[in-house]
Amino acid sequence: MGLIDKMRNAIKSFLQIEPALNTGVTIMEQMDFETNAAKNRIWYRGDGWELSQLYKQIGGDRSMFWAAVPTRGMEIRKVHTGVPKLIVDILTAVVMADMNDIKLPDELTERWDSIVKENEFKTLIGKAVTETLVIGDGAFKISLDGEISSDPIIEFYPGDKVDFVYKRGRITEIVFKTFYRENASSYVLYEHYGYGYVRYELMKGNSKVDLSCLPQTSELVDVTFDKRVLMAVPLYFCGGSIYEGRGRSIFDGKCDNFDSLDEIWSQWLYAVRQSRPMKFLPPAYSPKNPYTGEDLKPNPFDNIFIESSGPVQETTTPPRPELIQPDIPHESYLAAYITALDLCLQGIISPSTLGIDVKKLDNAEAQREKEKTTLYTRNKIVGVLQLAIPELIRKVFYVIAVANDESLPDIDVDVPFGEYANPSFESQVETVGKGRTQGIMSIEAAVDELYGDTKDDDWKAAEVQRIKAQTGTEMLNEPVFTE
């Protein structure tokens, strides 16, 4: 046996590695999907009183600002900044402002215009975007009700009123929940929308009851139709990492930051109130009740003073009132506020989109760079809508075909969106012009890049021909000579 073999055997006998024990880790979730949706909705509503009630009921970390209960006599005013609602509303406005007219085949345009008017379609899409950003997901429901309209009725249900049934990773059924209250009793109507059927269930507590128990549901009957048709379209912008099969709210992972922002702002306001000028008044100068002559007690808001008799010393000069103005460390509060606000907005929206003045001296290019976060979020929302809206429109016409016992039509739908935060026309002309002069862009590519979706294909083709004619590159027919 050689020296190397002896060393190897010695190491084997000395070093023994045991496998790791299979240790289980149990994590308790604080909230289910419905409770989390309720929490996100309260944040969006933006009422401080509701936030205080919410965090005192859901449990969890009692040291959080909205859950903490101050010591009696040391209460501070809790103020909500309203940033969560502002984020969602601005994102919705940015997306909906760029939504152009929907393009359908000519033979369907008139019927679609009637459906758009009946359902206020653009307002409906705006509501869907808002609810989906807040709750995490939702679904469009298509129904027929001749007593209300001759056109299909489109409704949007947010995620807290929708359940999804999956099979092999695909949605096979969407369950819509509608809540009723009748004679001091609560009911829930479950509408099961699947491929080729709609089925209704009315629940009172944990018991199933007849649909005739409520006047609103007494005329509902189960229906079956073409198994290729599902009269509903799901909608979510981000896949959830917490709740399997559900979307993710834009507030998920940000609520602690919103709580910290409210705490910093509330403390700042408290410091401002506490730093009001303090008056030290001799007894002769203290406010008196004009009717009884009694001293008026100070209150913490507007009549703050301290009664002082002055120093004990031999002097003929009587004590005089004194005014002291405390200093506020506003630079520290401002730095903390900006840091907390940045954490709230990171990965969602740019401060300049919300109207927050980051630097007044920024030029247009710097401002566009700061808009990139908004652009990424906006593009994600637009990408989902460009798939969901055409699917919704196709299913609306599928429902019409099923109701009229017709074959399902093959419909080509285009939902164009304009550009957001695009460069100025002058800078685009300069950039495209450089590409043309350097020979790396064709006339067709230059025209398409310059005008984008603002002009249709026919106009751009005509513009290309005009440019070629003016520059002497127009293609002419070969002349024919006859004898």
The pLDDT mean sits at 83
Tell me how many strands there are: 12
Question: What's the Cα radius of gyration?
Answer: 34 Å
Roughly what fraction of the amino acids lie in strands? Answer: 5-15%
| Poorly predicted runs of 5 or more residues | none
**Which sequence of SSEs, written as H and E, runs from N to C?**
HHHHHHEEEEEEEEEHEEEHHHHHH
Helical segment count: 13
* Biggest β-sheet strands, sense, barrel: 6 strands, antiparallel
Shape: extended
Q: Gap between N and C termini, in Å?
A: 109 Å
Helix content: 25-40%
Find the structural class using helix and strand composition: alpha+beta
Briefly characterize the structure:
The chain is α+β, with helices and mostly antiparallel strands and 483 residues long.
How would you describe the overall organization of this protein?
The chain has 483 residues and is an alpha+beta fold. Among the domains are: 38-76, no CATH class; 112-235, no CATH class; 277-324, no CATH class; 423-474, no CATH class. The protein is 39% helix and 14% strand. The chain has helices at 3-14, 33-45, 48-57, 83-97, 106-119, 121-135, 255-274, 330-345, 364-370, 372-403, 425-437, 443-451, 457-470, and strands spanning 138-143, 153-158, 162-167, 170-182, 185-194, 197-204, 207-209, 223-224, 232-235, 278-281, 305-307, 322-324. The longest helix is centred in the last third of the chain and has 32 residues, at 372-403. It starts with a helix and ends in a 13-residue tail after the last helix. The mean pLDDT is 83.
